[in-house]
Amino acid sequence: MSTLALLATAPTRLDPVQLFFDADIVVQSVMAGLVVASVWVWAIIISFSLRMAGIRKRTEAYERDFWKAADIDAFQAERGAKEAGEIPSARVVAAGLGEWRRSTAAKVIDREGTRQRLAGVMDSAVAQEADRLAERLNFLATVGSVAPFVGLFGTVWGIMNSFFQIGSQQNSSLAVVAPGISEALFATAIGLFAAIPAVIAYNRFSHRVNQLEARMQRFADRFHASLSRELDAA
To answer: Is residue 79 part of a domain?
Structure first.
């Protein structure tokens, strides 16, 4: 075949699909695992973004209406019970009211003890809600830290395979070495493609969870102060 014919049949751009099918079975397994992890990362990013946007909107509306309510018990019975599964602040209020009823049901009320129990119960509820929101972020952190090393493993294996081909064919030309090295480096590229969005999303979402936790803590402190005034009045 002439030189012109070789140039005509040579690939003019990088084909990721062809690189995958030409790779060794070990490198293919690494690539496939990283692609699955990347798809899962983007699914978490999209779903968590929508979830946090909805929670923030509903929380703002709930807290605004909560402080306008004349009867907290009636408001919580009507609004909080219906939205307790969707609004973290509603569950914090439910925890606080539950402890309030238990502590004030006795004939003799221990005011200082009641205040401490209310603070402890609502702080625990705030921490639990923050943990519940952040539970899916662990996968993002894992992918962000592990994916580059998994891709590097595929790269090392591919380079080892390239050197094996050099030894078996007794030929060190680029035609023998270059395809294996390209496939090996492609594994690292996929690892970085999975890790970079995961790290960025993890940092961003962790900040948003911390913001929501701080907001819930301020709401709980204000509610605790309101209950404390009611306790003094009683």
So the answer is: yes
Element of type H or E holding 234: none
The pair of three-digit structure tokens given for residue 211, joined into one six-digit string = 């913001």
Which of 50, 39, 207, 42 is closest to 134 using CA atoms?
207
One-letter identity of residue 5 = A
pLDDT in tens, 99-135: 888 888 877 777 888 889 999 999 999 999 999 888 8
Answer whether residue 18 is part of any domain. Answer: no
Alpha-carbon distance of 201 to 180, in angstroms, equals 33
Answer whether residue 139 is part of any domain: yes
Cα(197)–Cα(179) distance, rounded to whole angstroms?
28
Task: Tell whether 78 is covered by a domain.
Answer: yes
Largest CA distance in the chain: 103
**Which pTM value belongs to this model?**
0.78
For the chain, the domain total comes to 1
List, for residues 147-181, the tens digit of each pLDDT value.
999 988 888 887 887 777 676 766 666 665 666 67
Residue 229 sits in which domain range?
Answer: 23-233
